[in-house]
Amino acid sequence: MIDHIDKAILTVLQEDSTLSVAELADRVHLSTTPCWRRIQKLENDGIIARRVALLDAEKLNVGVTVLVEIRTAQHTAAWLKRFCEVVDGIPEVIEVYRMSGHIDYLLKVVVPHIAAYDGVYKRLISELEIFDVSSSFSMETLKHTTRLPLDYVS
Amino acid sequence: MIDHIDKAILTVLQEDSTLSVAELADRVHLSTTPCWRRIQKLENDGIIARRVALLDAEKLNVGVTVLVEIRTAQHTAAWLKRFCEVVDGIPEVIEVYRMSGHIDYLLKVVVPHIAAYDGVYKRLISELEIFDVSSSFSMETLKHTTRLPLDYVS
DNA sequence: TCTGAAAATTGTGCCCT
DNA sequence: AGGGCACAATTTTCAGA
Hints:
GO molecular function (chains A, B): sequence-specific DNA binding
Oligomer: homodimer
Number of strands of chain A: 5
Keywords (chains A, B): DNA-binding, Transcription, Transcription regulation
Protein name (chains A, B): Lrp/AsnC family transcriptional regulator
Pfam families (chains A, B): AsnC_trans_reg (PF01037), HTH_24 (PF13412)
Low-confidence stretches of chain A: none
Shape of chain A: elongated
GO biological process, one term (chains A, B): regulation of DNA-templated transcription
Radius of gyration of chain A: 20 Å
């Protein structure tokens, strides 16, 4: 369903989606029309979910990443629904996972500095009934990519 | 330096960068030329870092996210350098943070299923001298966005 | 399914306000 | 700064091989 040419196209588009179809076609050794049709198909199939601009976190003054481990007091569907609504409404919270093991939820939060995290923390504990919160601060981002591996798809 | 019109432009582009300049200009109540000039400036200033295609993790068969906490045996610059090289070379590892506190590094890894994580784990422990590894599996992604908050920039 | 070219749309620069 | 207009480039469609 996805051959090596599609993978080549996706590899390029995951890095840079500003290239013209003609330039992209060149790189994958195709001419523009077939390349364009493949891109169209990848979009229709939802393989390409969206195209977005990635902004510079430092320049937006949100250079500090905080990982927040949360344990809930109530394991109910209602609590989960409320939890989703609350984290959805906090723009500093950019990722939320429900985890296996002793940590119930893990959040990734971006803020200008460690002190600014306090506002997000207070908002979480005031809007939600939480059993335990543990926050770890990232000192340095060593790798950060939106590029997913294409090795497992066929 | 970044006014509310720039923020409006960035808000749209963080969601969808496929819009034409004319359409984007419409949405921020500007005509195309000044809108285009603002976009140009945001790119030159590096506020807009890049434009990429975001792919569907499920459809690429990497629907399982693993959070890996690593403690190192050696706190040396050489070890860190080697560590960066190794994680850089593993496409399943998409984020790596150096943390404060008792966890030295945190990795975000994407794989098709929990069993497939074993390959990444073995690669990590074979290529690096590691004191302790603790892996947690995400059962569900409740929120995941590349949209950074624009509330802290001026 | 590819190539090549035409038609439609969009990006880019110039000049004016 | 913003707006209007003209031209360049690119996307998208459509013919033929």
